[in-house]
Amino acid sequence: MTSAMPSAMPSAPPRRLLLTIGALTTIDFLQNGMVAFSAAPIMGEIGASPDQYSTVAAAYASVAVVVIALQRWIVERVGWRRYVQGSLMAAALGALLCAHADSYETFLVARMVMALGCAGMVTSSRLTVNLIPPSPARFFGIKALASGVCCGMALAPWLASAIVSADRWPLIFWLVAGCTLALLPATSVLPEATAPPAQRSDAHPIRLAALAVGSFLVLYVLQRSYYDFYADRLWLV
């Protein structure tokens, strides 16, 4: 992935760069945490059973695996700035769809759309730290990344409990959509450069399809084992 990174930025990290690094990790850990802590109320609202909700988690994770695998390929062709901006818009769209979901099927599709944007946020944040030249200034980027992780993990259960207690579960996703759209202006600090055609990596459709199917099946079996291990053990194996 480092070969796809543009040239490094000045030694003094801009505040918008640090904001982008911290906010990307905060948004990802926040949305994942809130969805996990609000599982029971959301299941009740969309009419999903626990095993169906576990399928949603497996589908989200399998999409995320494929998106992360394609991250370098995309960045080389569209540039770092457009990639992050596209991820934020996809996450916002998926969050809005989740907020309006009224059935298990619509929520499943909405979470898969959301995964298209949220999948590479932590990786993007970590690699954006590399835009700061090796120096003591890079520790500011590492600090922003770690602060984002801590803030997202700490805020998720508190916000989820407050929103669910008020019987307003769609606010979870409205909040995520608002955060992602609010971060868009800060991403203008990221470079737009793309990799020269001769240095671009190739995508392998068959391998990606195998990765997508294989990751979903493994995650699906792991999730289903909580419910069907004794009844369908041979099938799961």
Structure, explained:
The chain contains ten helices and no strands. It has 237 residues and is mainly alpha-helical. α1 (15-37) packs antiparallel against α6 (121-128) and α1 (15-37) packs parallel to α7. The two termini are 35 Å apart.
Instruction: Please report which band the strand proportion falls in: under 5%, 5-15%, 15-25%, 25-35%, 35-45% or over 45%.
Output: under 5%
Structural class: mainly alpha
Can you name the CATH architecture?
A: Up-down Bundle
> What name goes with the CATH superfamily?
MFS general substrate transporter like domains
| Most strands sheet | none
Mean pLDDT: 86
**Fraction of residues in helices?**
over 70%
Q: If you compute it from the alpha carbons, what radius of gyration comes out, rounded to the nearest whole angstrom?
A: 19 Å
Number of domains: 1
Number of strands: 0
CATH topology: Growth Hormone, Chain: A
Return the string of H and E elements: HHHHHHHHHH
**Outline type:** globular
- Number of helical regions: 10
| Poorly predicted spans | none
Q: Keyphrases for this structure?
A:
single chain; 237 residues; mainly alpha; Growth Hormone, Chain: A; 10 helices; globular
